Amino acid sequence: SMSGENRGYHTVRRMFHISELVDAHQMLALTFGDVVDYAVDFGVPEYVGNALDDVYIVDNTDHVVIQPINEEKDPATALTMCIFGYHGGLSLVPRKPFSKFLSAVFAARTLQEILPLADIAKIVVCIFATGLHLLRDEGAAAVESFYVTLEKDKKTSFYRHHSSSNFDPNIGMAEDLVDNLHSKLVFANDVHSLGMTEEEIFNSIQRGVDSSNRDVGWIATDDIVEYFESCWSLLPEITPALRQRKLYTVADYHEGVKNLETFLSSLEVDTIFFSYRGLPSAYDVGVLAEKALHNQELGMIYTKVK
Fold first, then answer.
1. What average pLDDT does this structure show over 175-203?
2. HSE of 51 in the Cβ direction (CA atoms, 13 Å)?
3. 279 three-state secondary structure
4. Would the pLDDT of 141 be above 60?
5. Which residues contact 126 (CB under 8 A, 6 or more apart)?
6. Closest among 204, 257, 267, 251 to 235, alpha carbons compared
7. Does a cis peptide bond (omega within 30 degrees of 0) precede residue 280?
8. Tens digits of per-residue pLDDT, 83-105?
9. Which of 107, 147, 150, 160 could form a disulfide with 32 if both were Cys (CB 3.0 to 4.6 A apart)?
10. Residue 147: how many other CB atoms lie within 10 Å
């Protein structure tokens, strides 16, 4: 699917580029992480969809509704739903976080015959983390669904302990999103008896943060040519009129450039990079944010000229 004609940026080539010098869990997460892009691919590719057709349905309002899963028969999917905070009956607009969820389920189901659940959890955490920067708009819904999961499973002591701090629906600070992911993994480790140690959980979240920062690393690149190549490769993904066409009108191209300008201006470059317990350091995150802001300003100037 990443080699499909609708893809310009989220491709196999990019996957190999951002996965240099990573461990096996990250490599698998980055390999599977963009298999599904619901908006760009106009749904789920057929060969992937066959493995996911029992996970969701599309209702008459074009929302997707998550279907209940039998945990005993499908523990890998149940684990993935737990980490994402999804549950049967949850209705979602099929935006990027939903695509990350389906990619994670596809990874979990593909790998469950050869890997233990603890390893699948580490991979799913990385996939989830590459969508952290997407959750600011949908954070409240994701966290609310996790509240429901907690209440359904009657984990009241966990709920009381964490609900006032780690699961505030009004997520604003980057650190809160990472703390939420940590708490979800702790919860999943308990509920699904994964047997992960505190050190393994720490390393998993750290690995996820690194995956997230790699995923958006192009925004802070020192190579301005690479930056603009990434920008232009996004054009067909954010502009349907430019997909699947060898010829397009000037108006179509103008729409694409306007969409790119809107996308660049919407990036919160000061909070798009994450840290977990000092890794990377606040200084390093600040440097990335400063570079990203510089590139964003150049990108805005260029798109306005175009």
1. 93
2. 18
3. strand
4. no
5. 25, 26, 29, 30, 33, 204, 207, 208, 211
6. 257
7. yes
8. 999 999 998 888 888 999 999 99
9. 107
10. 15
Strand partners, 66: 56
What is the reported pLDDT for 95? 81
Q: What is the pLDDT of residue 135?
A: 74
Measured distance CA(226)–CA(299) in Å, rounded: 12
Give the per-residue pLDDT at 160: 30
* Look-up of token digits 């066409």: 245
Supply the pLDDT for residue 144: 39
Q: What is the pLDDT of residue 74?
A: 97
Which amino acid does the sequence have at 70? N
122's tokens: 């580490």
pLDDT at 156: 33
User: At a CB cut-off of 8 Å and minimum separation 6, what does 198 contact?
Assistant: none
Q: What is d(CA 241, CA 256) in angstroms, rounded to the nearest whole number?
A: 8
Model confidence band, residue 162 (pLDDT cutoffs 50, 70, 90): very low
Question: Within a 10 A sphere around the Cβ of 54, how many other Cβ atoms?
Answer: 12
* Sheet containing strand 56-58, strands side by side: 56-58, 64-66, 91-92
> Which residue, 31, 58, 30, 26, is CA-closest to 44?
58
pLDDT, position 3: 66
How many angstroms separate the CA atoms of 2 and 36, rounded? 8
Backbone angles phi and psi of 153, in degrees to 5: -85, 0
In angstroms, rounded to a whole number, what is the distance separating the alpha carbons of residues 52 and 208? Answer: 24
Cα 295 to Cα 224, 263, 267, 280, 292: the distances in Å are 7, 13, 11, 21, 5
> Rounded to whole angstroms, how far apart are CA atoms 294 and 182?
31
Residue 218 to residue 271: CA distance in whole angstroms:
15
